[in-house]
Amino acid sequence: MKELELSGASEVDFEIEDIDDEDSDIEDEDEDEDEDEDENAEEEDYDEDWVSALEDNDQDDSDGTLGDWAKLETMHSSHPMYFASKLTEVASDDPIDWMEQPSDGLAIQGLLRPAFIEEHSEIQKHISTNQSRSSDKHQVEKVVGDKVEDVSIINGHRNGLGSSEDNSTSEESEKNEISMNGSLFYKLQMSKIQLITAHGHQTDVELEDFKQAQPDAIAHSAAKIISRLKAGGEKTVQALKSLCWRCKGIPVEEAAIISVDSLGFNLRVCCGTQIQTLRFTYNARATSEYSAERQIKDLLFPRSHQKPQKRRTGSSK
């Protein structure tokens, strides 16, 4: 009996332990499921936060602040046309000569209107000038015959020729005739002029100064002067470097003249990683090609102004 009781008790204990083990396994599985659910919930929350962050960025981009290119800081330091040209140069395979000075631009704002009859003489002057510059006489005759057959007609009106009755009766026919055989002339009334450098710097130009401006005296001779100076070779280059040090106090590694006018010349210099343009002026305005070249050489090769000492000769008595 005692053995049966002991065996029965042990079996009951084993059954209880088995039940406890099953309960613990179920609890572990429940905990694992809870942890998986928590992880999935955290991942979903993270994804939602990421999506909301992207939506916020999209809203920031669409609010118009970043879309307005004119308000960006880079627009104040570099002109869009200059930036685009540099992108084109870098993308192309052609070598870039950094010593060349980019050309400046001119922005003109104004109103375009049809020409008045009172401006007939000015239009005639431009027509005659254009005809005289043409090298092909047959082409000039064709242009005169087809486009300006009757120069006295300007935008459908005659320059005071004939009576007023004839003008009133033939006004419609003249308008039809000008569209076929004549030319329409327009005049630009300028209201604002800006000089835009290659680096984006804008300078306003006075309209009165622009109207009174005259062509430079040596505009057509600048290329010849620069060519003759470059023919000097290393001697001219060393003189240009010395000029930069004497007048500007800048030690340069490379120097080249890029433009010459009646008031002075521009020098493109390289110093380390910096490239800039220096301006040198003459002592007096040059009125001819010879005068400009002489003043440039005087700056490059200054003469010594030391007076020679006179020898004293003793008189014999």
Automatic annotation (TrEMBL):
Biased composition (Acidic residues): 12-63
Coiled-coil parts of chain: none
Ranges where the record places region Disordered: 1-69, 154-176
Protein name (database record): Pentatricopeptide repeat superfamily protein
